[in-house]
Amino acid sequence: MIIETIFAILMTFTVALWIMVPAYTANAGAVPFGGGTPIDFGKCTKNGCRYLGDGKTWHGIIGGIVVGILFGLLQMFFVQTFHWDWLPQHTIITITTLATGALLGDVVKSFFKRRAGRERGEKWPIADIYDLVVGSLAILAIFAWQWMTTNVTIWIFVAILIWTPLLHRGANIIGYLIGIKQVPW
Ligand code: CTP
Ligand code: MG
What we know:
By secondary structure, the protein is mainly α. It has 6 helices and no strands. The site of cytidine-5'-triphosphate has 18 residues, from helix 1, helix 2 and helix 3.
């Protein structure tokens, strides 16, 4: 009984991570590719600067999406080659929507973060962490509703909510230490 429960929990966390790889890697991929022209082209709203800020760049969003899709393709390759049939089967649609959604969520977050008067890179708890989850699952739901309802069960969703802050923290500390992130969050 205990063994079965532990196995079920481990399985849930593994599957949750597997589903979210394109989103997590897209989000992390934006950091090394970031820089250059900001998405808002430096423009300000009438009542204050900026629409998004210098932390959201074209290189970052496009580079990140490409990284997420490449990792997703790698996952599809492994599933095919080694017949990992027990894992959710990603498709071109699911990896593309998860990667794109993660970074769109990040951009939308920054828009509201600026409106809330928080500077680029300033901490904004909850939103800074879960923006990619909301974005990726929202876009996934739009383009692959069937796939999402089959694979993202309530417990998988709970596991995603647990994985995200852990990986976020870990990745940001690594990014900070190797000098591609200005702040360790
Ligand atoms: N980045 C980018 N383009 C994106 C997302 C991220 O260039 N679309 C890069 C930027 O260099 C950014 C870094 O990745 O500074 C870290 O991303 P993030 O934490 O999302 O940005 P912040 O600098 O914290 O900005 P914000 O306050 O708007 O979240
Ligand atoms: Mg940030």
